[in-house]
Task: structure prediction
Amino acid sequence: MTDHTNDLIFLDFEASSLTADSWPVEIGLSWLADDGAIESHARLIRRHPTWSMDAWSEDSAAVHAIPYATLEKGLDAPEAVEWYQAMTRGRRICSDAPKYDTMWLRRLLETSLDPNTVDHELARVRDIRVILEPMLPPRALDAFYERLARLRTPHRAGPDSARYASALRAAFLAR
Result:
């Protein structure tokens, strides 16, 4: 499927809670490869020492099914930053919830990057609607939202971001 582009990447986070001082526990990135296959990757993130345990919520853990002990298997925050930057270099980044995703991305990036680089990285994240609505004709946009509505939200960063790549593939097929 040659009309797919792999420069658009879907970002999703799972977090310790939804409070203002919450922090990322998992980051997911997904996109469509040029052949139409969905590429999806995720990494667990260990709590950085500057992130407060007061922001950990067992209710949130129950939703995403990531117990705190499991985070010990994750990347250190600076390693997650390196992974994120390598995966997103040269790509457009979109989010279905930019308010939250940029909050958690900021918290992650601030563990190892200077403030100017953090601001530059955050400015790259766009609302999915801002990117897709001008890009897709009405029929394709309808197919995108219909497919998205049919896909279960697993509340894990990789599969959640992959839902959007799957919906975009449906939109391209409907054009």
